[in-house]
Amino acid sequence: MTTKQELLDKFDAAYKEFHSEIEGLDEREFGYKWLDNRWGVREIAAHLAGWHGKLASGFERMSRGEKPVPEGEDWSDTQSYNDTFAAHAKGKKRDQVLLELNDAVSSFKAAAQRLPADRFGEGKTANKMFVGIDHFREHAEMVRAWRERQAA
Q1: 62-100 pLDDT, tens digit each
Q2: Residue 10 contacts by C-beta under 8 Å, 6 or more apart in sequence?
Q3: Which member of 22, 28, 73, 146 has the greatest number of CB atoms within 10 A?
Q4: Three-class SS of residue 16?
Q5: For residue 88, what are the domain limits?
């Protein structure tokens, strides 16, 4: 079984992995659109921030005994959310987007910490909401591959 602390540790490691891949990018590199000619690191970081903000609010609702997803919202419509989160970064500077990502990650972790340990375990909703572990790693690999292509 994966405990809350194990999930938080894995989450931290995945976030650090992603952050290490974007470290040192200047404003131009951060904004360059290389993923389907629509997204670059700016949009990826905003997308990650947006999802972790959503998930943090889900943990907060769970701590009040509510369902994580508000009535009338459908988090399974991921493309719509992805587009909205990426559009949110338009015109923003690198440091602002990274601050928003860091704030969202901090909010996510704090909200998860407030949930009782018995809300975590294999197959439980709280565990499923730690999708960021794989999400950060997936995007770290994308950025790593892009940077390697740029260096070649």
Answers
A1: 999 999 999 999 999 899 999 999 999 999 999 999 999
A2: 130, 133
A3: 22
A4: helix
A5: 4-151
How far apart CA 119 and CA 106 sit, in angstroms, is 20
Between CA 71 and CA 82, with CA 77 as vertex, the angle to 5 degrees is 115
Please state the domain count of the chain.
Answer: 1
| Coil, strand or helix at 39 | strand
Report how far residue 131's alpha carbon sits from residue 55's, in angstroms, rounded to the nearest whole number. Answer: 9
Residue with tokens 């959503």: 54
Residues 44, 97 contacting (CB under 8 angstroms): no
Of the candidates 1, 16, 12, which has an alpha carbon nearest to the alpha carbon of residue 110?
Answer: 12
Share of the chain above pLDDT 70, in %: 99
Contact 85, 77 (CB under 8 A): no
Q: Are 7 and 130 in contact (CB under 8 A)?
A: yes
Instruction: Provide the CA 47 distance to its chain's centre, in angstroms.
Output: 7
The CATH number of the domain holding residue 96 is 1.20.120.450
pLDDT on residue 152 = 86
- Quote the CA–CA distance of 50 and 147 in Å, as a whole number: 24
